[in-house]
Amino acid sequence: MKYVNIDLPVKKRGFRRFISSWLVRDEEKDRTYLVDTGPASTWPIVQNAVEIHGGGRVDAVLLTHVHLDHAGGAGLAVSEYGARISAAPRGVPHLLEPSALWKGSVDTLGETAFLYGEPVPVPGESLFAPGVLPEGFSSIDTPGHASHHQSFILDEGNGEKVLFAGEAAGIFLEGEEPFPYLRPATPPRFFPDVTLNSIERLMKAGCTRICYSHFGAADGAKDMLRLAKDQILFWKDVVIALFRKGVSPADEETIFLELLERDPFLAAWRNLEPDIRDREREFIGNSIRGFCGAFRAEK
What we know:
The chain is 38% helix and 18% strand. The protein is built from ten helices and twelve strands.
């Protein structure tokens, strides 16, 4: 199998090396699969990658969840290539009729939603039945980041199992130093136990490689999943300790500086390129707000 990580930048500062689609090419069977499509606005980039790496075809799209930056191009994949679509049952209504998802995204994201683009509906007949996937793939329900989140595993049959984790294992930036850059993907509302249980299920799957939606891939999937779990527990301890010292849940900057000082997997933040660093600062704040909402009662 060949795996291609398609970078899908949008026209907002720092929104590169961030959103991606994974193209999986099976040359032997002449099949091409996409894990997530990315936003509707970046669909031409995906099309170009399909022509170069995918034999000009898309047989199936496997959606980790239906947020605009992951599934916005799903309807276009159907109209362009006749692709079949897999999505968690709770996300399917938003694919069939995306108007409520679009309105909610505009209300939440503002201008960024328009940069992602409005999704077109997915025809019901293009959807896989629940539990049905292309040969070699399986799925695991991994709610937490979203209630309709699922992760996919591709068993290559040679002892190699590739995990496409979406955002279930947080955000990763491949190639950053001094440690891998990791942060939780925990926007409000954040449900810690649900998220941790999802990571535990993935750890038991015995995958050898992990592919993140944001952004890149790493060997040692179980180790990376353990780090994601440990980071969530560490952030929980830090946030609760600060609350008990009198820090307000509204004091995001103090919480950020404490995490930046103590979490080794945020150490690479200072070395990121300026536009990406600023983007990540914004999203770290969003993750902190998720923690504050989840744990403010424990102060």
